[in-house]
Amino acid sequence: MNYIIREIQNDEIPLLEDFLYEAIFIPDWYTDEIPRDIIYTNPQMYAAIKDFGTLTDDYCLVAEVKGSVSGEKKIVGAVWVRIVDEYGHLDDETPSFSIALYKEYRGQGIGTALMEQMLKLLMEKGYRRASLGVNKENYAVRMYQKVGFKIVGDGADETEYLMICDLQSSR
User: What contacts 1, CB < 8 A, 6 or more positions away?
Assistant: First the structure.
């Protein structure tokens, strides 16, 4: 699939609401629908997007594809980091990751490419490490390990891992 990875533009920041909702991991056994307003009512979740772009450590990359029929461009995924008290928060010097792709674009390497580009950007900016929180059942754990993250313990609760990527070591 042809896609490009680029920085998000200011007028595209509202798309992070959609991607935050897409980032919610729903195990196969869970049959209820997750209400969309959870992204606003859960403080740690909402922190991932609240006033995004206003903090020094806010960075976001998007994956954009060109429509096969119309030729119009569509953003299909995003990875963003910030240093706030959200899932995966480690400390006030470590950016924590959020990433999501629309379902039909998953499993094609786009998420890995987004993660690798963001890690490269953070290294260039001089960060020592990055963190993320992920549900232990989430298949993406393997992808995070592939790009350099290591499990260091439980995240927000016993259902989640806290993972850290050392940006100073050679990966």
Answer: 65, 105, 108, 110
